[in-house]
């Protein structure tokens, strides 16, 4: 996707996000996120993560879960799709939502047509569509109330730290919105503002409007403008990502495209299947997974991403479904 296609999409998104963020911060409501920073034994996290993987449809006979320094999914072959996560003894989100994110990538890889392995029809179509699958399972499914109506009772059995926590308080905590400096730790509302900073700086660099020497201060200025925060050093600022150092210019927008595609696909799935959260609350993830397998995974790289989105949803890629999803979800949480 070229900059001329991205910019109108991102302009619509930026306006909607900043307005929503202002209203959330002005609501006066704040979840108690300290409940996520209690003792969570690593072995208990691993056991719970494996239960979630199995329930959601990840084939553990054709994959495995292991600890690592930074989570990733890797496909060894059509019958071997592995995922990793990282655990912190005093933080719930990293291990569990990291697992769900990588599971989304793995479900896509496990759903590609095995008979077409080694050809484009047996390969994922793009980083953006790939990210749509990981963000779907991490956020639209994994941070939904229906998901935790199903799994919170089990979480309380496994983690003694949740014994005095209600479902409502837990659900609010895992959906907390707070502007921050670090992209990979950002919530659903602010995450794409981190991406917008990077896209705008990349374009300025390549258009000759900004020199690399001036990048740190330009970064800080955009963070103040977009998120109301600014880094005190390069580590939490311009050097926090490996992408530019590795020459991966143009990569960052794929994350936001993944979020937009995810909401657009999910909206279409609900239009055809009915509300999905009640299904999740009953433990029915197969209906939704089968829908994504038939509509998205089975096509491999048969169509370019934009065409795939149009074929699945009937519309061109748009920010509107994502903004509508955020509006509905966070209006309920933050009043």
Short description:
This protein has 335 residues and is mainly α.
Percent of residues in beta strands:
under 5%
Count, helices: 13
CATH architecture of the domain at 35-179 and 275-313: Orthogonal Bundle
> Reading side by side through the largest sheet, how are the strands ordered?
1-3-2
- CATH topology (level 3) name of the domain at 35-179 and 275-313: Neurolysin, domain 3
Give the fraction of residues assigned to helices: 55-70%
On the 0 to 100 scale, the average pLDDT is 97
Distance between the termini: 37 Å
- CATH class identity of the domain at 35-179 and 275-313: Mainly Alpha
Unreliable stretches (pLDDT < 50, length at least 5) are none
Over the alpha carbons, how many angstroms does the gyration radius reach? 20 Å
Oligomer: single chain
